[in-house]
Amino acid sequence: MKDFDGQVAVVTGGARGIGAEIARRLARGGATVVVADVLDTTDIVAEISGAGGAAEGRELNVTDTAAAAETIAAIHEAHGSLDILVNNAGITRDQLLVRMKPEDWDLVLSINLDGVFNVTQPAAKLMMRAKRGRIVNVASVVGLMGNAGQANYAASKAGLIGFTKSLARELGPRNVTVNAVAPGYIQTPMTDKLTDDQREALMKNIAIPRLGTPDDVAEAVAFLAGPAASYITGVVLNISGGLYI
């Protein structure tokens, strides 16, 4: 039996990148995966379905409080449960603080932090009622260590870590665990743009001298969402290859 047979998982920001890999991994484990994103989810849903998994797409802008609540309610009504929530949706708008536009500060916080609140609140109510559930938040090593030019992103991810720890205490008595993963530098289209010199300099600061892969993150999320982590809550799993120790 697969770890997630009969379970329904929602992955925000799951149309591509790390979110898509998380969706693939949960589907391989037997979950029915709902990919919620502002981007087109057709490709990832077709890929999962073509591989024998169960998936569907839902258009969702996590900054829309009403839409988030309606989407979570609709998923629960359609499937009869909501067992796993992975809050992955997020963006960057990098700039030194003294040059940062207020709208770029607001946008990053509204998606990376407010968006998590918007989706998690209605989902948590359902999980509390069912007395079971797994919530995994995708934070960042930047939220633990900071990074020049990313004050907005670091603040959002540090806030997400505090949110995770607080919610773990609130939901634990109802058998709902809340954990976070904190990826470091992961091989994505964003890191593909690094020059050879930038990549070489980066490797000097990573104990395991390679970039992480989306699968590294997805496996950690699957662990925290699975039965082996039933007594783990409020944890931030650092997936940075030793960038931050």
Describe the structure.
The protein has 245 residues and is an alpha/beta fold. The chain has one domain: NAD(P)-binding Rossmann-like Domain (Rossmann fold), CATH 3.40.50. It is 47% helix and 16% strand. The protein contains nine helices and seven strands, in the order E-H-E-H-E-H-E-H-E-H-H-E-H-H-H-E. It has helices at 17-28, 42-50, 65-79, 102-130, 142-145, 151-171, 189-192, 196-203, 214-225; strands at 8-12, 32-37, 54-59, 84-87, 133-138, 176-183, 236-239. Strands 3-2-1-4-5-6-7 form a seven-stranded parallel beta sheet, with helices on both faces. The longest helix is centred in the middle third of the chain and has 29 residues, at 102-130. The chain starts with 7 loop residues before the first strand and ends in a 6-residue tail after the last strand. The mean pLDDT is 96.
Q: Can you tell me the CATH topology?
A: Rossmann fold
Query: Which radius of gyration do the C-alpha atoms yield?
Result: 17 Å
Q: How much beta, percentage-wise?
A: 15-25%
CATH superfamily: NAD(P)-binding Rossmann-like Domain
Structural class: alpha/beta
Helix-strand string = EHEHEHEHEHHEHHHE
Uncertain ranges: none
Number of domains: 1
Label the overall shape.
globular
Mean pLDDT: 96
Helix content: 40-55%
Name of the level-1 CATH class: Alpha Beta
Any chance you could write out the topology, listing elements then pairs?
Elements: E1 8-12, H1 17-28, E2 32-37, H2 42-50, E3 54-59, H3 65-79, E4 84-87, H4 102-130, E5 133-138, H5 142-145, H6 151-171, E6 176-183, H7 189-192, H8 196-203, H9 214-225, E7 236-239
Parallel strand pairs: 1-2, 1-4, 2-3, 4-5, 5-6, 6-7
Helix pairs in contact: 1-9, 3-4, 4-6
